[in-house]
Amino acid sequence: MPTQQQATDTVYGAFNTAWAVNSTYPVVWPNKKPDTEPMKQGNPWAFVRIAHKTGRQVSLPGVDGKRIWERKGQLACEIYTPSGEGTEAAYTLARLVEMAFLGKTIDSVRFRAIQIKEGGIHGNWFLVTVTAEFEYDEIV
Predict the structure, then answer these.
(1) Are 104 and 42 in contact (CB under 8 A)?
(2) Is the distance from CB of 26 to CB of 34 less than 8 angstroms?
(3) What span, in angstroms and rounded, lies between the C-alpha atoms of 60 and 41?
(4) What is the pLDDT of residue 67?
(5) Residue 8 clears pLDDT 80, i.e. is over it
(6) What's the gap between Cα 52 and its chain centre?
(7) What are phi and psi of 10, to 5 degrees?
(8) Which of 7, 77, 96, 101 is the most exposed place for a label (fewest CB within 10 A)?
């Protein structure tokens, strides 16, 4: 039963494992300065973030006074590929991220409702966003 930080590490770890096949494609993380400025280079790149949602108690306290809390969240991965080069690269990368989570449970974190959404042209980039809902139980 993971904590919020452990669940976050699990989600980011699964993304990293999938994205690692593209070592020259930068990733921008929340609250961390990127190693390279992604918009100034020509390779596809991703912005990845997690947003936890409100949890709820799903059990009465046990003898030890602890309860099970259901926690939920969402991974959002924005994938940017150079515009004017078609959509194949964007969809290929989106599918790679989707398959990292589709129907999986990793370290007690369950993934549901994975979606790929087209965002269109944003400046010099074509945007596709992959979202993955996740949930896990925490004992507190």
Answers:
(1) no
(2) yes
(3) 53
(4) 82
(5) yes
(6) 12
(7) -65, -45
(8) 96
Phi, psi of 42 (to 5 degrees): -100, 0
Residues counted in the chain? 140
Q: How would DSSP label each residue in 80-126? A: EEETTS-SHHHHHHHHHHHHHHTT-EETTEEEEEEEEEEEEEETTEE
Match 């306290």 to its residue by tokens: 61
- Calpha distance 51→39 (Å, rounded): 24
Q: What angle do CA 125, 30, 20 make, to 5 degrees?
A: 65
Token pair of 9 as six digits: 């590490």
Q: Please work out, in degrees rounded to the nearest 5, the angle formed at the alpha carbon of residue 47 by the alpha carbons of 41 and 51.
A: 170
**CA distances (Å), origin 121, targets 80, 118, 124:** 9, 9, 7
Per-residue tokens: 89: 């690269």
Torsion sign across C-alpha atoms 133, 120, 93, 82: negative
Give pLDDT tens digits for 48-78: 999 998 787 877 887 887 888 899 999 999 9
Residue 105 token pair: 């449970």
- For residue 52 the two structure tokens come to 């936890």
Residue 20 has phi, psi (to 5 degrees) of -60, -20
